[in-house]
Design a protein that fits this description.
This protein has 3 helices and 4 strands; from the N terminus they run E-H-E-E-H-E-H. It has 94 residues and is an alpha+beta fold. The chain has one domain: Alpha-Beta Plaits, CATH 3.30.70. The chain has a 4-stranded antiparallel beta sheet with strand order 2-3-1-4. Helix 1 runs antiparallel to helix 2.
């Protein structure tokens, strides 16, 4: 099953909803800044994450953006500090 790198960015002014969304997204990816997550998800995981986000936010007030990143784009990412960029690990089963 192929997984895709998704950058999730959000802007939520309400502290309670922002914290709840942050905690929800921890189940799907790695926080690289307080309102930015890197996620490596298959199609089912992406759908599950979007459904979980929908349950937390108020669409008229809150903003959440999902940026799918292609492999070529990921190769250009530079990290100066903090967690390294997520990457898919190869698993060999013997």
């Amino acid at each position: 099953m192929s997984r895709q790198f998704i950058l999730v960015v959000y802007d939520i002014s309400n502290d309670k909803r922002r914290t709840k969304l942050h905690n929800t997204l921890k189940d799907f990816g790695t926080p690289v800044q307080y309102s930015v997550f890197e996620c490596l998800l298959d199609e089912a995981g992406l759908k599950k994450m979007k459904k979980a986000v929908t349950k937390v936010i108020k669409p008229r007030l809150d903003r959440v953006r999902y940026y799918p990143m292609c492999q070529a784009c990921l190769q250009g990412v530079q990290v100066t500090s903090g967690p390294e960029l997520l990457h898919e690990t190869e698993v060999t089963v013997v």
